[in-house]
Amino acid sequence: xxxxxxxxxxxxxxxxxxxxxxxxxxxxxxxxxxxxxxxxxxxxxxxxxxxxxxxxxxxxxxxxxxxxxxxxxxxxxxxxxxxxxxxxxxxxxxxxxxxxxxxxxxxxxxxxxxxxxxxxxxxxxxxxxxxxxxxxxxxxxxxxxxxxxxxxxxxxxxxxxxxxxxxxxxxxxxxxxxxxxxxxxxxxxxxxxxxxxxxxxxxxxxxxxxxxxxxxxxxxxxxxxxxxxxxxxxxxxxxxxxxxxxxxxxxxxxxxxxxxxxxxxxxxxxxxxxxxxxxxxxxxxxxxxxxxxxxxxxxxxxxxxxxxxxxxxxxxxxxxxxxxxxxxxxxxxxxxxxxxxxxxxxxxxxxxxxxxxxxxxxxxxxxxxxxxxxxxxxxxxxxxxxxxxxxxxxxxxxxxxxxxxxxxxxxxxxxxxxxxxxxxxxxxxxxxxxxxxxxxxxxxxxxxxxxxxxxxxxxxxxxxxxxxxxxxxxxxxxxxxxxxxxxxxxxxxxxxxxxxxxxxxxxxxxxxxxxxxxxxxxxxxxxxxxxxxxxxxxxxxxxxxxxxxxxxxxxxxxxxxxxxxxxxxxxxxxxxxxxxxxxxxxxxxxxxxxxxxxxxxxxxxxxxxxxxxxxxxxxxxxxxxxxxxxxxxxxxxxxxxxxxxxxxxxxxxxxxxxxxxxxxxxxxxxxxxxxxxxxxxxxxxxxxxxxxxxxxxxxxxxxxxxxxxxxxxxxxxxxxxxxxxxxxxxxxxxxxxxxxxxxxxxxxxxxxxxxxxxxxxxxxxxxxxxxxxxxxxxxxxxxxxxxxxxxxxxxxxxxxxxxxxxxxxxxxxxxxxxx
Amino acid sequence: xxxxxxxxxxxxxxxxxxxxxxxxxxxxxxxxxxxxxxxxxxxxxxxxxxxxxxxxxxxxxxxxxxxxxxxxxxxxxxxxxxxxxxxxxxxxxxxxxxxxxxxxxxxxxxxxxxxxxxxxxxxxxxxxxxxxxxx
Lengths: 819, 135
Known about the structure:
The complex is a heterodimer.
Chain A: H1 2-29, H2 32-62, H3 68-73, H4 80-85, H5 91-113, H6 121-141, H7 167-182, H8 184-196, H9 202-232, H10 243-268, H11 272-295, H12 308-331, H13 348-380, E1 384-385, H14 388-408, H15 419-443, H16 448-479, H17 483-493, H18 495-516, E2 521-527, E3 532-535, E4 538-549, E5 553-564, E6 567-572, E7 575-579, E8 587-589, E9 591-593, E10 598-608, E11 613-622, H19 625-642, H20 645-654, H21 657-680, H22 692-697, H23 720-734, H24 739-750, H25 762-793, H26 805-818
Antiparallel strand pairs in A: 2-11, 3-4, 4-5, 5-6, 5-7, 7-8, 9-10, 10-11
Helix pairs in contact in A: 1-2, 1-6, 2-5, 2-6, 5-6, 5-7, 6-8, 7-9, 8-9, 8-11, 9-10, 9-19, 10-11, 10-13, 11-12, 13-14, 14-16, 15-16, 16-17, 16-18, 16-26, 17-18, 17-20, 18-19, 20-25, 21-25
Chain B: H1 3-30, E1 32-36, H2 37-42, E2 52-63, E3 69-76, E4 79-86, E5 98-106, E6 109-117, E7 130-131
Parallel strand pairs in B: 1-2, 4-6
Antiparallel strand pairs in B: 2-3, 2-5, 3-4, 5-6, 6-7
């Protein structure tokens, strides 16, 4: 199998080379047949990569440890899910996964645009194929994931550290990769436009959607990484400006800048060179980020180790990218001249420009800080590093400036704002900001940076609220519907604009969370049973330290009770787990109690069993959950902006007036329970009393190490552990406890939910965290489906029922005036 | 030189100066030397009191009873330095772990204010295996 996989990679390389040659030759000779043959070869690469991918996934699942890569990153006891995700676990596989994703994305992009952008396609195929060739080349000569052991192959894999067998770890990397890889598509179209000289705005239209999708994945990927750091690492924070984190953030900044500056080119024909530059930079930074994490150039604790040869190849590739693309930009400068000049600095395009500069500055600054050790070593011979405080000091004002512009931009008119419309537009947002600031001063908030941030959040929300309100009023006046319908219609007419505002709401919420960081309270204490420690207005009492074992690991759990103002708030169980075979490397299991206003975050870094004492870190993190909610809203807004026109046009034109209100109600109903679960992280298991014992035997683990539920322990009837469990269980039933209570008792007694076969575990809590997103997606799908159904029932002859042409023209005018 | 070019040039100059000045001052405050244990221990007294990150491998890790005070040795290429750290250590910190400490060197050893330990496997490029000691 390994041999076949390797040959497939070789084949893919050759086919890629053919795709480049055929499509370039075809474009130059204007031979449609050659071009089509190139495109065919391009699709073929996707097919070949899919087969190669299934081979490696099969090797993981089947446990083919003769393949080095499989042996190194999995073992036979690993759950199936993690066996599959091991595909992109290591360096070699992640490169292969990269090519696989790129070939799929590329094929989809080419297929969609093959008619609309016929003239660009051959070069798009060529550019993407060249990128694929680079990565395939790496694999073929340097990092072959299919490499096998030459002599005897081991019978068992080395296995993954339990630290990394984690839900977020499984989905965070592919999300990031998807974002990174997706950004190759805009680059390919940009290059094709430069090569062919078709530099009107049509290439921008082709890539807008791709950039948005990639940006969405990148954002969600960053968010997932933050949640993982927060929940698993136990240091109470979510961002540490580590080189590897920074590598993911760099292209995010330039992609964000690009999404904004596209608007300026569409609207005013300006910033054309800038846009091409941003697309090139963004792609370059994705490669640069990959280079940072894989070459060992920067000292990061979790980069993939040092590899000078790989570094050299990456550097050659990056230099090639920069020279060729900027060479082309210079060559095409005459065609890229702006159609308009900046009329005034008090205009929307100026605000966009400022936003772009700041975003680009952020990217360069972070790149500078990340590379500073390397730079300083090259210049002075001494390796100097800069850490978190340095980044925080710089990025704080930069972030606040960006937040301010988020609010200012939409208030300014294109071309030039008059004094009158400035007054008109800024009145409400500034009033909101002042109101927030006043309240904060009255409350005596002591952290002034957070105070400014809150006031700016108020300002931006004022802007967004005003935009929606005015738009809805205009539309209501024109169509005579109720305000909700008008609102939906408004969003439908300009999805990108209003979707963008929703994204801004998400950003504001994130900033709320960031500002909350200024109020974090943190205490390290030593507690003995019965003692309590106070942090702010909460008190944490240690009740006991318990040792339990579920066969897979030994768990030391601190049982604590948390009080606020003397009232019991919650019981929390921070723990340390010692996995079999990894006893010297315990995992810290943080206990978090979430709420909208703050998280209580308990860590058990050390303990003493004889004296029953525990060193504990107690952290109160105000507002931190708003960061995650912000990511959710951001995803929702991007989703709105991405909805296909056709779907939304149906909804906009044909939904009966009250239908919108009804769906909004439905949506809020859908989201409500999700929100409750997300905020408390608690769930209620279903109640049932019949066949209680049998049922519980199927859900409670035997503790003898057989890793079976009680009902199917292999060691019976001579299993002491089973008997002990059984005595407990029958005892509880005799006491008249119900199903939930018995389970709770087991959890209590064993100091953790691992005693349950299907624990009410963090696993579920994590799902609960995904739930709002799923619910939002489900609600959107529901609305779309309903809209479609209604539209089918409507009379086919009336394409714009309810809106006579005159009215709709007037509305268009009014909406345009608003712009 | 036209009026417009002068304006742009002046703005650019002011911005560049402001940026450079700020960068210089903040770098001075926050930059740390990054050294391996053997580089520092060759001439330890020249490093006393300087902001420093040292890279090495932890050995003989001990913890004072009922506290988070850690005491261990940092080894690298035959050189050793005694190290002290108080706080939560990353899960990956143990004997023989590859560690980067930041803090200052004194005659009795290296006093670390934060600790970073190498990830257990190269599984995950985007993972951050850090534990900011001050957080």
